[in-house]
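Case study: NAD(P)H-binding protein.
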Amino acid sequence: MRLVLFGATGFAGGRIMREATARGHEVVPVARNVGSLPGARAGSLHDEAFVLDVTSGADVIAVAIPGRPMEDGRKLLDAVPGLFAAASKHGARIGVVGGAGSLRVSEDGPRLIDTPEFPAEFKDEAGSHAEVLEAFRRAPAEIDWFYLSPAAVFGSYAPGERTGRYRTGGDVLLTDEEGVSAIGGDDYAIAFVDEVESAAHSRSRFTVAY
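Here is what the predicted structure looks like once written out:
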């Protein structure tokens, strides 16, 4: 399959690129600053003409971009209409590296972001990504997409080790027997590429954790 990957130089994006490439998929890495990344395209997700051009021929448009405002003040949410236009024109599926903050702590409980324990320094990012999820849930019916929320502990501060295993859930945060919600970067990437290949979660959000 051909993946066009926005945010290829980031924590999640880089791992998804390596996982997909190792499985024989064609990956077009995209970032604002690509450096010497082979075959990469430099550009912004907020440039709709660029997005339409770079996603031509894509089977999947993968988005591994932070939700919070960037240096120019624009958020990932602002790029969603352009993503929809590109997906519609090219017949591509959209896959989003999502956030954990919009997950509920139990079936009838609050969202993780709304709990007193949620770190204040992560609220801007989590809230912005929750808006992106809601925008995808309102996507035109012809657009297929998936939004993969990681566990609560996920990121460069806790990269973890590759195990090749994970559990999946829906809109409720997954925890282990000790109450810990975590997923390593490589195992998240495995889950993401598994979804690219299986399309098991059409037009929906799901989550992964150990």
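For the exam, be able to explain this: The radius of gyration is 16 Å.
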